[in-house]
Every structure is written in structure tokens, then in C-alpha cells.
Records
---
Amino acid sequence: MRIPDDEVPSRRRVTRRDFLKASAGALGMPLVVPASALGRGGAVAPSERINFGVIGFGPRASSLVPLFLQEPDLQARAVSDCQREHREAAKALIDGTYGNADCAMIPDFRELLARPDIDAVYIAAGNRWHGLGSIYAMRAGKDVYAEKPVSLSIGEGRAVVDTAERFGAIYQGGHQRRSIDSCRFVADVVQRGMIGKVKRAILRCWAGGTIEEIKPCPVPEGFDYDLWLGGTPWHPFSHERVKGWRYFWDTGGGMFMDMNCHWTDLLAFCIGRDDTSPVEYEPIASEFAADVASETPITCEVTARYADGVEVLLQSKGTFQERLFRIEGDEGWIEFWDDNGTVKAQPESIVRYRAITTRSYTEAGGHIRDFLDGIKLRRPTIDNPLAAHRATVTMHIANLCLRLGRPLRWDPEKERFQNDPEADRMIVRALRPPWTL
């Protein structure tokens, strides 16, 4: 029979405090351990923190990284960007937040992914890297938050889905409107049938821009241009191509793709279509500028239809303030205005049911929190790989039917076009060595 320790005079029970004292004396450590190191005082213990890396630090990352840094259970440890000045700006932000100089600057993101102390990464290095970078990160055992559009081609998006499944990665697509209360209210209204059976959606972004001409010049010092290009075709360096990458087919899809992928994602969320995409696409109108270097449309309009007949009108026109997300049913309609989170509806009584705050698209904190909770609980995020991929596929096909100048029919299950070998060849883009899917 075991005798309780407190009944044996010759034995002394070793408490946690005794152990800390002994360890401190043996190792020359201070006797007083800061409360923050133990997770007290509102702090998170180091063992519970998600060690984090940033890949790409341009305008979008400079807006979102501060929101990541607000999360107490996240510790940003490294930043990678092929431009030295971007790395330095990211390090200054991160070190300034933490009050130290610990953030590592790494020119090649593959070295960041090789670090065993990095658990997850945020990828915001331009459309050419959102999908490919995610694939490399997940292969390296990292969880991923990737900016939108989440792929540069349909095939690349499918590879993201398959890689996440194969490696068990937690992945969050950067369609943050799913996590904004205004949009969740819209989804709730639609899913409750408060506007009746959904018939049509109008998804509108603003008109795109143009790049007048390309002026090749030497690559600036501290800029790894070959890494910036990644798997995309090689072109002589020019500031115009680097700054205006979204207006060239090799590196982007125009404003039509960049913004409307938010809307196609939100629509799928509202009407329960995360596992599919529209099956019919028809180009209605497009305006391309003449005698310019850029390649993507200034304005355009494409009609898409889901298999059950729900029509989607995809538009790029007007000003930034005129962008619109609207769902129409046979008993009313509801729309979301992106600037300030305002929701309008018919019948107007629908809005009275709203009991949540108003936030704009800039409030991405909830989306980040959902990602971090997904990592800790190992559960799918609100914008999981398949949902993010399917929404992006819609815009890839809309752009393809504009480029080909004809209607397209799509099989969402097989992810192939129907009786269109030319369009099928555009599903996957050839990658410049050494990059592979």
C-alpha cells in the first residue's frame, strides 16, 4: 500500500515552485519568472502561440499584417519579400509592434518555409504567388492564409485543394467578407427564404485601368526579379509591368478578376454553392483599350448561370463607389454596399431583423481569428480550399470567355469545359522552371 507523502517525515513533496527554484539555481536563471512567460496577465504562453511568417509585403499586406499582430496567440517571426525595401518595411512594423528586433528578413521565401519554428504563413505576394506559394507552403508542413484571387489558373486552384487535403493543412482563402457581420446577415436573410426563391445576382466591381507603355530598364539593386516572376513567362524588367501586374494576362486577370472574386465567393456562401460553380457563361460586352501595353478589359459584362437556373450578372464598370453586391428573389431583394457595410432590402422590413453592427470590408480581424482558431482546433476555415477555389473558378471562366469571345459550358464535377478543347488547354498554365505544381 502506498503511504501518502505528507505522512512520511523523511520525504518531502516537491512542488512546482521548488522545481523552478532548483532549476533556476542549477542553470543560473532568475528566480522570478515573468507572468507573461507563463501565460498570465492576459498574455499567451509561448507554447500556445502560433509562430508566423509573412510572404510578400506590398499594399495589401501592409493593411492586413497589423491585424494579424493584434492577435495575442500569434508571434510573427520572419518576413520574406524579393524586394529589400519591402522586407525592411515589414520588419520595422513587426519589430515596432513587439518592441524588439527579432523579426528575420529572408529574401527567398523557400528559406522561410524551411524554418521549423514557423507554423503558418500569410501569402500576399501578388496573384502569381497566391496559389503556387500556398502549394509550396503546405508541402513544407505550414498552414496558410492566402490572398485572393487564390489562384492564377483553374488548374492551379485545383492543385491547392488537392495539396491541402493531402498534407492536412489548414487553409484560409482571403475572401474576408464571409467573416463580416453585414455579409453574414445578408446570407442569413437569403438562407431563411426572406426574399423568396433566388433568381438572379448582380456582382459589380469598378472599371479597370490601363498601362500605356512598357519601358524596359535595369533591375534595381536589392530586387530579385527572377523570383518576383516565379513561374510566369519571362519579360524584360520594367517598373510599369511590376507595378501594373494585374493588367497583364501572364500575372493577373484585371480588376474584373481581382474584385469580383470577392463577390462570387460571397454569393456562393449566401446561396449554398461552395461545392460548385456556374455551368454556362456568355460574354455580353467588353471594352479593351487600343494602343496600350496592358491586356485586360477596362469594362466588361458576362452572364453566368448555375445548373438550377440562378443567373449571375458579372460586371466591371463605373467608379469604385459604384461597386455592388445584390441578390434578387421572387419575393424581394437584398444588397450590400461595400464602403460602409450598409444593407438595403425590399421589403424594407427585412432590415429591422438585423441586430448586429455595421462593418466595412476593411474589418478582416474576424477572418484572421477564424484562421487561427482553425489551426488550433485543426478544423476547416470559413473559406476553405474548395470554397475559395470554386468561387475563383467562376471568374477564371468569365475571363476566358471574354478572351475567346464566345460562350462556354463548364462541368463543375469534372472541372472541364464541354466540347471545347481550346478552352480546356487554358485550364492549366505552363510554369517556368524550376517551379512546378
---
Amino acid sequence: MILINPSIHSESQSQAITPFIYNTFPTGLGCLAGYLRKYNNVVPQIVDEQIQPLSGRQLEKLIEELKEPRIVGFSLLTINCWHAYEVANRIKQVDPGVLVVAGGIHATVLPEECLSSKGIDVVVRREGERTISELVDRVQNQKSWYDLQGISYKRNGEFVHNPDRPLIQDLNEIPPFPYELIDHNKDFYRDFGTVITSRGCPFDCIFCSQRAITGRQFRVFDVERVLDEVGLLVNRYKQDTIWFMDDNFIVDKKRVFSLLNGIISRGYHEKAGFVAEMRGDSVTYELLGKMKEANFKIMSLGMETLVPRLLDKVEKRETVEQNIQAVKMAHEAGLSTSTTFIFGLPTETREDRKYTAKKARRLPLSDARFNVAVPYPGTKLYEIAKAEGGLKIKEGWSNFNVQSYMFHDDIPYAPPGTTRAELIRDTYMANLFFNLQPRVLKSWLMSPISGGMVLTLPEKWYFSPREIGNLVSLAALFVKRFFGICFLKGRSHKANIPKTSK
């Protein structure tokens, strides 16, 4: 079996910025691989096209070397689904008998779109471990799989959507993460030291597509198991940064304190620094003090906006003041704070964006990123944008990238009263003026964790002519785009909504 993490759409990102975008660790595929190894005695080969795209001959060789029955799975996001369809079609050309399976957020939300691709046979919706395990077992034993919970498929020209499979309640059923199946690519992942301690989030922000997978159910892995994974990464793999990639790290504060105390008692805080994503309304001085003791380096917050009306609009269920206080408290505790803002929220005005950008520069933030709002399918924001008639979807969803405003003008959405040109210009300028602050610019150039926690510079880049050349190319891209948006006309776009199951 092969599990593939597809490349993003070729039109979504300029090649000039590619060397500075770190490859995201494929946690979902790793969890599936570990589950299959434990319960099916199958060890899938994980192929990450975001590191090395598959040529025609490489794909052909992979399929030819695969033992029968042959199964290939894809993990789909909106930004990489179109390329996955292309690769799936190529697989069928090599061997029409391969069972091609699609899973992930995009497949869960738009199964009929996936199945309309000639190369996709089955869609696994929501959490995939139990479903893919049963599917593989049925295929191996030549049994019918059409009645499985949690799948969609096409039969006799009709789409069939079986009932959803309940989420796994005891996450410890999932075996420890199989880092050894991916460690041959360790040096390509800035966040190889990724650990997931929980799944889900009890909140339902209108822009978050992850709720399509987990709903609002929050479940946790055992603390001792999490500490063992941290120990493996620190001791065996010598990771000096551990990234806790939970949707919301501090839902259960008692559990978090247990984890922090475990990090300290095991001495991991002397070997690595830690990064976690959280909400501002859960931050306390006591928590920050313990995080500092455990050598947490960065607290990542999704502030979204500094306009109270807009934060209520996105159903964040926290206040602007709580977020501001969390940033100030973290600064006092000696922790850096990285945050993201979203421009282009429903009912947002240009004055709202200017206010957020100006106020953000006054906060003791070490890092910030201003993104355009992307109404991903499956979110409330998608339904709002569609109802307003202002949704623009390019072929293959190629413009559904929060950084797309940096490369082209066809961003997917702008709220009524705001042109796309205005939104692009305001977002670009907010990023420019924030990052040109001397303290931020210094951090961007010298820290391996910088650029809104998306862009990164290789260590000792200043000694490498190639890296310096890449940096010059990136600067040239930003300058060219700067002048381009300065003369961008305030034109609007007609909605272009593809026919989907949604």
C-alpha cells in the first residue's frame, strides 16, 4: 500500500517563495500508517510530493513494485486536491486495478467532486483509521466493502454515501506515531518534532474546516504516551524544537499542567524548546509561568481581528481584550507570541483592517501574519460567501490559499463593500509594515522560526550563495508585487461556484 501527500496546485504558489515555505509534517498519513501496521500487519510506503513530486516514471515504478492487491491512498486538502486527481488518473493508466482511496478534509466535505475524478474509487470521510483498516482487510480477503461505515463511492453511475462512522473515543487505540516510517525525510521538515496530544476543539469558528472531521468533540491521548513521544523525538532524533500541533492545546488545563510537569521531571525542557497553539481566553499567569519553566518558546494565537464586532461575527467565543491581555501576559512571562489575523471577514470595512493593522504593531508580538479570508468548503464562511454571490473559485481551487494574494489578484472572496483590489492591498501593506519593524525584521533574518510561522530561513543561510540568491529572488518577488498592487484597479469579480454536493 502507498499513502501519498500530494503537491499543492502549481498555480497557488510562486517558485520564488517555495524554498522558504517549510514542508508540513504529514501527521494524518503517519497516523494511518501506524494504525495499519498494528491492526492489519501492513506497512504503507509514505510518499510526500511536497518534498519531491513524482515523475511519470517514478509513479509507474512505485505501482509496478506494489504487491497485489494494490491500494493507493491520498490525503486531500482543498489546496492539493486537483493535483491528487491528476496523479490518481495517472495511476489508473498504469494499472486500472489499483484501488485508489481519497481521505482528508476536502474529500470529507466534497466526496462527489472527488469521485467525479476518474481515478478515485472510494472516499473515506472524517477520521480514517478504523475505516481504512476495515477497507484494507476486506480488500485483502477479497470481500465486499460496499457496506462499510464512513465511505462514499460511485456505483452504477450513482453516488452512494454510507452512514458516518463514529469518532474514536479512546485515542489510545491509535498506536504511537511511527516517526521511523518518515525519518528518511527528517531534514526536509522543520516541524519533524511534531506531537499531537489531542483531537478536536469544542469551538466552531466560521472559517475552520477542521470541524468537518472532528465536529466539536474533544478527545485526548494519555499524558504518559505523549511524554514518551516527546522523549523519542528529543533523545533519538535530537529535535531541539517540539511542536504541539493540537487544534487547541489548553482545553483541559489540569491535563496541560500534568504534561508540563512531566516535561520538567523528565528533563526534556533542558534539551528542547516547545511551541503550542492556544486561545487567548484560556491564558493565565500561572499557566504561562509553568510553560516558561518547561522551556516553551512560542505561544501561537489565532487573534483573527482586533475589532470586537468582527470577532463576534466569526463566532470565536472570546473577546479582543482577552487576546490582547494574553499577548501582554506572555510578553511579561518571557514567552514570544506569534499570531495570525484574517482580513476580509464578513461585514469588514477598510477602516476595520486599518485599525487592526495599526493596533497589532503596538502589541508586543514577536511574529504576525495577515491572511486573506479563504472560505474553505465545509465552513460557515463558505456558505456566507456563496449566499452573498461573491465567491470566486478558479479551476482546481487554485486560488484557495491564504497567501494567494501575494501572487495573483483572483482571491476567492471579499466581503460586500470591499473590492478584491482593496483587500489585497490592505493585506499586503499590513504584512509589510508589521515585518519592517526592526525587531521583527531581525527575528525574521536570524530565527529559524519566523515569517508568521510559515516562512523560514535555513540555518547559516548567509554563508550559502545559493540561499542568498534565493533570498534575493524572494525580495524581487515582493518588490514586484508591491508595485503591482499599488496600481491594481478596484475591480470586482463575478461569482464562479462549481457544482458540488454542497
